[in-house]
Design brief:
The chain is of the alpha+beta class. It is built from 13 helices and 21 strands. The strands form three sheets. Strands 1, 2, 3, 4, 5, 6, 7, 8, 9, 10, 11, 12 and 13 form a 13-stranded mixed β-sheet that branches. Strands 20-19-18-17-16-21 form a six-stranded mixed β-sheet. Strands 14-15 form a two-stranded antiparallel sheet. A hairpin with a 2-residue loop joins strand 18 (about 390-400) and strand 19 (about 405-410). The protein starts with 14 loop residues before the first helix and ends in a 6-residue tail after the last strand.
């Protein structure tokens, strides 16, 4: 029997097949979208892709979140990190998700470092023991010649036990240590706890319920290949500011100058193609009613002019609508009451706890806000606002005067025809609020 060799030609495999992967990304409503991306895609690349797909504004605060459901933890994937590397380090946790979400606090510490690092938690000195001014705090993290030290008390969960103990911790370039004797920093009393070479810092979700933590301000050090809750090094702070300080310092020590490059990269692109911008401080009130224009210096006069212009603008808008066969003036006044429903900062029937959770997710910095329906009073609304890393809630009350309906935050002293006018005013003026409205919480649909 004779065998004849036959040559078989296999179809060529293109590089595209080898270097493309499909990933699934979720929005806040837990709906998802699958996209095919290169294997060397970064978190920033993914965010820019979804900014284009969803037609939302790219304000450089969009973030990719690594959410590990089975472990009950999540973290912001840094802009420069390769998404496939992050996914390969998830271990056996199959119920893991990537979320596309706002994070206004991502690089805020570069702008306001003293808000993130309270004096009592920071010691800064150079190798020659010359004290460094706290205004140069961030530089000490970015330079290898200086050594910032973060210190303070943290609760730590004992391995294989349900109990938590409180220790004095010290964060240095070489790693995280805790003191076996009070607040002593002597080398013989400092015991190594963790470093960040092959580990990442995650926020712990529902820490009290899941781990019996003393507060909800918990975070953990997770080894890259760790897939079990038993292997997490769980820590818990007493308040949000303390937790934020530790996590921010750990990010800076792990990624260093790369974080600063991530921060300035979008601004460098803007300089390459400059867009005209107006500083809030350069805005002035002007009066154009006379033969000559003048600057309105009296704040109360400027306020009344602004409100009157807003009313005039809306009256003209209503007239234009009615002229084009749209609803009559009475119908338009009713529709004005509901015009806020399509605004990205309005979140409808959202509970107080949900509002707080959303604001904390999208960045606990001054000025992050949302508006929602009041649950206790169906006729009113609530402004939820972050200030000093705490969420405050202000009731927006409707008042009627001469048959017209207005909205107010200050018992009728300042009135607005609708919620849009109210938001626009407090974006420029603090008024009775602790700070101006700066960043609105938003949910987009993928």
């Amino acid at each position: 029997m004779n065998f004849h060799a036959r040559r078989v030609t296999l179809p060529a495999i293109t590089p595209l097949c080898l270097h493309q992967r499909v990933i699934k990304v979720y929005d806040e409503n837990n709906t998802s979208k699958a996209v095919e991306v290169p294997t060397d895609v970064t978190a920033r690349d993914i965010c820019q892709l979804f900014v284009l797909k969803t037609h939302c504004i790219d304000d450089h605060s969009w973030t990719l979140i690594d959410h590990l459901t089975q472990l009950g933890i999540e973290r912001t994937i840094e802009d420069h990190e390769y998404v496939m590397d992050v996914q390969s380090g998830r271990g056996m946790d199959t119920d893991s998700r990537l979320y596309f979400r706002k994070n206004y606090a991502k690089y805020e510490f570069f702008k306001k470092p003293l808000d993130f690092f309270p004096d009592h938690m920071v010691s800064i000195s150079t190798e020659t023991n010359d004290i460094v001014d706290h205004s140069e705090l961030i530089e000490t993290f970015l330079k290898s010649s200086t050594c910032p030290e973060i210190h303070g008390h943290l609760h730590v969960k004992e391995q294989s036990k349900k109990s938590w103990k409180k220790f004095y911790f010290v964060l240095r370039r070489s790693g995280l240590y805790f003191s076996t004797k009070g607040t002593s920093k002597e080398p013989r009393h400092l015991q190594f706890f963790a470093d960040f070479t092959d580990s990442d810092i995650y926020t712990v979700l529902s820490a009290k319920k899941t781990h019996g933590a003393p507060t909800e301000f918990a975070f953990c050090v997770k080894a890259t290949k760790c897939s079990s809750a038993r292997d997490l090094k769980l820590l818990c702070a007493d308040d949000e500011q303390t937790k934020t300080c530790w996590i921010t310092a750990m990010r800076l020590l792990k990624f260093g100058m790369q974080l600063y490059q991530n921060f300035i990269q979008p601004h460098q692109k803007q300089k390459a193609s400059p867009v005209r911008s107006i500083s809030e401080n350069s805005l002035v009130a002007m009066d154009f009613s006379g033969q000559k224009t003048r600057v309105i210096e009296n704040p109360s006069e400027a306020l009344s002019v602004a409100v009157e212009e807003g009313l005039s603008w809306r009256r003209k808008s209503c007239h234009r609508l009615s002229c084009h066969g749209s609803p009559s003036s009475t119908q338009t006044s009713v529709s004005n009451l509901a015009i806020h429903l399509v605004q990205p900062w309005f979140h409808g029937k959202m509970s107080r706890d949900e509002a707080q959770r959303l604001i904390m997710q999208q960045g606990p910095i001054d000025g992050v806000f949302l508006l929602r329906d009041s649950q206790s009073n169906p006729k009113t609304f609530v402004l939820s606002l972050c200030h000093m890393q705490k969420i405050k809630h202000f009731q927006i009350v409707p008042v009627e005067d001469d048959g017209e309906l207005f909205y107010t935050l200050d018992d009728g002293h300042t009135r607005f025809t609708d919620l849009i006018q109210l938001v626009e005013f407090y974006q420029l003026n603090r008024g009775i609020l602790p700070c101006r409205l700066k960043h609105h919480c938003t949910r987009i649909s993928l």
